[in-house]
Structures are given as structure tokens and as C-alpha cells.
Write the C-alpha cells for this entry.
Amino acid sequence: MKLPFALAIWFTASLCLAQSDHNNLDKERPLTFEDAYSIAYRSYELQTGFSAFAFQKRQPQYGLRTEIQYGIAKNRDLSIGWDPVFDSQSARVRGDNLELSYFEGLTREIGNSPAVGYRIEAEMPTTGSVRDADVRARLVLTKRAKTYDKFHLNLGVAGNGKLAFGAILGYSLPLGYPRQFDTTLLAELAVEQSRQASGQNHWAGLGIRRQVDVTTVLDYSIRMRFRSAVTENRNALIFTVGLSKSF
Amino acid sequence: MIALLGLMLSAGLGQSQLPPLPPDLPSWIRAKGMDELYYKSAPYNWSINRVPKFARDMYATGVGHAMAYEAMSKGQVSALDTETFSKIDRVLRNPPKLPVDEMAISPTFVRKYGYLEKVFDWAHTLHFQTIDVLAYPGWSNARKEQELDELWSFYQSEPYALTGLPMNMEYLDGFSYSKRFRQQYPKLNGLFWGYHWLQTVNYDMLFGVPTANQAAQYEVLGERYHEVELYNETRDFMPMTAELSPRFAKRFPQLANAFDNLHMLHDNVNDILAQPGLTDLQREQQIQIAIYRVLDSTHRGESPGSGTPNSLHDHRHPPSMPGMGMMVGSDEDEMYMGGMGWMNMAECGHCSVPMPAEEPWGATVTANGWTMSVRCLMCARDMASETPGRAIIRAATEDPKQLLILVSDDEGNWTSNLATVVFLEKFGEHPDCSGWSRAFTSTAALNSYLVANPEYAGMPGLSLADWSKLNQGKPDTYRRIDRPNPYRKDGEE
Amino acid sequence: MKFQTLIFTAVCLSVAAVSVAHEGDCPFCKLKLVQNTADQDNEVVLRFGNKKIEYRCIFCVFKDQKRYKGDLVVYAPSEKVGEPVILKRTDGKWTAPEGVVFLNSFKKHVDCAALSRAFSSVTAYDTYVKKNDLKETKAFSLAEFVDFVVKPAK
């Protein structure tokens, strides 16, 4: 349990430090999609969140995803994450993999052209061979919709040998402008090829990111997996609550 | 038809006078990345929140900037002094509790002028971190001063950094599009200059001042900001850092100059965006040129005090104030100050006697929207007492580590940050006033001074209440500089 | 001395390099303060607590009085050099020495220092009006003057 301990230290250390922003959208915080911008150069960001997976045909699962990002250069960040899941049906924790991720923002929105970025990540088993690593890549486009709201298209491919493709259409809308400036509403619609069975997974989600102080953003969401290639995962509801903190 | 012809002529005239793009425009201006930068990691970050009302007002200035730029970028100039003003004013009256991402409120502006936003954002970061350092309770004044020097180096490490050299403000405000915004949209321009008043008056509120005594000053300054400065349409020129925070500007001239150059860039951009008849490309080019003029990279290797008068590389400054470039009509140390008229920065604002070269430096008086340097406590008090409204005096004591902060109510009743403060005032010749009018942190300190200066032997120490009641009237040494307002045409008031 | 001559003399003296007062503007009308001359006082001083604030004329003082929440003392220049008329506002009520009257006949505010003044008596008022060849003027009592000044502008 060295990693959680280290993360706890990071988290405590971050309490007196700097700023997260509810307008900047990161994967899994709280929905699956992200925007086409990296975190700021030289910044660290700790993100963590608790998720509950409620199924119709099996006992629930609980996740505690945690990630640390670092802006290694302008428009580039690196992150390391850990996503343990407790399965109440088997009473086991699954989560000995570490996620290593690199993001690069290629261009901001200029004129009518969208912002473009990409992410490459590998999920590395902490036990076993590097050859077992799962590799994923994601192309991200962000474009302003009407005024302050934005669309975010995430196109992904994942696999180790056999490839699976997915697409997420995300939407973000700052709430309260021009009177309030602390909340963003998120929505997503996603489709992906299942890697566990033949077929597709479809889900939709709705979330909120809310700035609670200069350093902290709270997020919460609900996602519904209304189609799943794995029968027992069908009609799952996923509740997430998390926070992001920069330093 | 005549109106259309007039518009074409004015547009044509403006275009023919537009400066061309410089050949050495930095390549980063064309870079496509967002290039978002994080501020310097430090324990003092967000110490601004220790003065909550000030922090909220500062956060609101970001919203005000962004909303105005968004409207201008969308071409909504006809509504700037009406709907846009009202929309911003609502936010200023109900300022946000947290800092606001300006880019999120001005998406059109950022899509068009993302490179400009990088310059603004990085300079605003410097603004805020400077405040954070000064508002941080964990460090000594010496450590804070060291950190501000380091912060300046950190700021300069990015290509978006503005120069810390004094720039000639008459030159920077003298292009074919200049002054358009303030003339056409005085209400919105008033807001901009109000923000810049707040962003420059705060540094003397914080610099060298114990953190426990900072918020009390903002009660005075915040009231002035909300009641007058935001809606002041009578200023001739933007507020200058050295005008409003002379102590800070003298100690950190590079920061003061960078803030002034930033604010002038804001004025240039406002003028360009408000100028009718320019194409999108022309606006973009003129904004790039305006950025180029004030970038650190444009002036690398140049030094303060040098340069050809009234040119891009004119880095002369008033001899007594390295933290300010030459102003319209200014001559050596004399400059025209809004609300005060012509003043000599090397002299006491009250008695006109040259400021003492040796320490202590005397005092400053902030009242009625201005800040003036004075030689002594008597000059500070009497200058404040002849000015309506609340006032702040920041004065040296015998202890360089203890600054005296006096805040007055409307009737001139003063409260002090030093409970044991005692005053010496033996009215005599004004040229010696910095000797016979002083503040001490204790009676023991006063007695030590009296022993060292036998000419004042036997003088009693005055309590704050007794000292407050004194008024020595108008100094016979006062020398009025009788020159017309250089910003106005002959006879214009 | 004609009125124009009076104004000219006052202006010349007020801008002379030997002037001993701050350049300052009137807190109300924002015009430059007019300084005392050898034969006529012009400086109107309002005392509010420890504050001593100069105004350009008594019209400006009365127009600006609302900003002060407590008691006031106003030293209004009179017909006699060094002997101002002392007006007081106590608990919101204005008082003046018996016999004091006021002139308020300026058409343009730039003339206010010469044409908005206090006098210790009607006789002194009449002398000033005659000396400066002023037409269509009226000697206001304090109550009339306050009423005239504070009423809303048309």
C-alpha cells in the first residue's frame, strides 16, 4: 500500500497550494471525455474520485481512481494513475495496474478551427510482463458551440494485439454566466467496441464540475451504460464524486 | 451618404498612418498552442485572500476585462457604454469569491487574439503573485523583497514578458488610433482605468505593511474604488503605478514599469478594437505591433535612463522615479497628475521642499484617489486634513522594520497600527520639517532621538489624539507649478 | 473698480508664482481655488472635525454639504480682510451671526468666487454691489440662501 500512502502525502501537501479550474476538463473527472488542452506548464494536479457501479444483475462495484498529472512543457503533460475497483460480489480488489499517460495539445481554437490534442496511455501491470501492457490512444477535438459552451470529440483506440475503437461526444456548458463563474455542466454520449465480448458498449452521462476554492474543483456525475456487450453489465448506473487539486 | 464618406475618409486616413509589422516580430506570436503557464509554486500563493474584499474586487477586474474584450471581438462596439457596461457593472458590484478564468468568458477574443491573451495572462499572473508575496504573513519584509526580485526573473523567463524598462507614454499613446476608446466609450474606459487604479494603488497598501494592517486600508481604498474610481470619466490618462504606489515603484521600478506597460497595452488594444474601418487583418497586425512595442525581447540590452526622446526606445524616466516613463508634457521630475495638477516628484507634495535624500523617507498620503509623497508627518496630516474624505498615511518611524499606518475617518480622526506611537512636532522652518516632525514607536525611542538631537530637547511627545488636532496651515514654502493641463487643448477644462 | 477689473485682479493674483496655497481644485466644482489677495479674502474654509477643507465659494460649500455627516463650521470670506463670516451647521441646522447676508448672482460658475459671498451686513453688501457695478442682485438671508442653493436645479 505504498502508493496510496504516497498519494495521501501528495494530497495533504497540496492543501496549501494552488489552482484547479472547473473549465478545464480532464478525463474521468467526472465523465469519461476530456478537452483538447493540457494542464498548465509546471503545474501538478492531483485528481481522485470515488465511483459506485450499480448493476441490475450482479452486486455493485466500487472504484477509487487517483491520478497525478504534471505539466512537463507547454501544452504537454504526463500523468500516472491508479484505478482500483472493489467487487462486492467476489469480495476482491482488482487494481494492480498503473496507468501512464502522455497528453499533447497541438493547437488551441483559432478562428473556426477546433483545438486538437492527443493522448497516449499505457496501463502497466505492476506484476507480470510489460508485454501485457494495455495501450490506448485518443484524439481530442474541442470546439466552441454557441457562446461559452463547447463540444469535445474524443476518438479512441485501445488494445494489445486486437484493437477496439470508441468515440465520445462531450459537451460542456458553464452555468450562471454572467453572474456566476464557478460551475460547469457536462454531458457525454459514448460508444465503444467491447474488449471483453463481441459487441458494443453505449453510455450517456451527466456531470458537474464546481470550483469550491481557488485550488479545488469538486465533481460529480451519473452515467448510464444502457448497452453493454457483457450481459451482466447492462443497464449499469455509475455514480461518481471526486475532486481535483492543483499545486 | 456624407456620413459614409466621412467614415471612409477617416478609415482611409487611419489606415495610411498605421505602422507596419516589424521584421523581427517574435515567432511565438504565430505559435498555435495554448501555452498555458503555471505561476511560481510558493507558500504565499493566494495570500491575496487575506484581504477578502480586495481579492474579490481583483477577481472582478478579470471578469470586466474579459467581458469587454469579448464584446469588442464580436464587433458589439455600439453597445459598449450601455449593455456591456451594465453587464460588467453588475459583476463589479457583486464580485466573485474565486478567481475567474478570463479565457472562458472571452472565447471569441481568445480565438482571434490568443497570442495577446498569453501576454495578458502572464502579466496578470505577475500582478497577482506580487500581491500574494506582499500579503503573505510568513516572511519578513527583506525576504519578500528578495522574492519579488526572484519573481521578476521568473516572469522574464517567458517570451510573453513585458519590458520592465520605463517607456515613453506619450509615444505609446500617440498612434492614429490612440485615445479612440476613451473618447468614444468613456464609461467603459472609466471601468478599465478604475481597474488599473485598483491594480496600482494596492502595492503601497501592502508593501512593507504588516499583514495585519493591510485590510484596514482597503476599507478606505475599496470604498473609493467602488464609489468614484470605477465611474471616473474625467481622468486625462490611465493611472500610473508610481502615481499611486510611489514607495513600491521606487523600490521595484521594473515591476512598476511592467504594470504600466501592460496597462498601456490594454489601452492600445482597446483603441484598436474600437477603431472603425479597420479590417480583421489590420486589427490583428496592429495588436501584434502593440505587443511588440512593449515586449521585453524588443528592448533587450537597453537600459533605463537612456534612449531617444519620444521614441520606441525612449527609456528615460524622472530622475527621482525610476518606476515610471516620461509622461505627456513631463519635464525631469515634474508631471501632471490627475486631481493634483502639476507636481514635482522630487519634492514634498505639501511644502515643495525637496524630499530628504537620507532615511527615513518621510511619508505618503493617500486621499481622494491620489497618493503623494511628503517629507514629514506634519505635511502628511495637514495635506490629508485639507482633503475631503478618509485618508491613509504610511510613514517611516525610527525603526525601519516598523511602518506607521494611520487611517482617518471623514472628520480626520486617525487610528494607528502602533498602539504606543508618539509624535514629535516642534513647528519650525519647513526645510527642516523631516527633523522636527516625526513618529516614534515608543516614548523611549523618542527620548533617544531627543538626546541625539539636542535642538529638540524638552519637547514633549504627542499622543495620537493630540497630534491629530494640530494643523499648521499652508506651508509658506509651497511652490505652485503653474502650467496648463498638457492633456487638454488651450482653455479646455 | 469695475467688476471685470476685480475679476482680472483676483485671477492675476491667484496664479502668481508667489502664491502660498496649494493649487488644489474645489472639491465640489473642480475649478481652481481662488486665493486671498491683499484687499480681498477669497478662500472659503470648511471645518469638519480635524479637517479644514477649502472651497471656491460658499455656493459650493452648501451644494457639497451632504457629504459631511456631522457638525460644520464655515469660514466665509467677508468684505473685510481677515474677518470671515462664521457659519455653523449644528445638528443639521445652519446659523449665522445676526445681520449676515449673502450675494449669489453668478451666471457662469467660473465667476462664483466673486459673486457668491457673505457679508457682515446689508450695508457691506450694498457697498460691494455698487463697487462692482452688479445688476439684478438680491441680498439673501441665510435661510433664503440655503433654500436657494439646495433647491433642485431647473
Observations:
- The first strand of chain C starts at residue 44 and ends at 48.
- Chain C is about 30% helix and 20% strand.
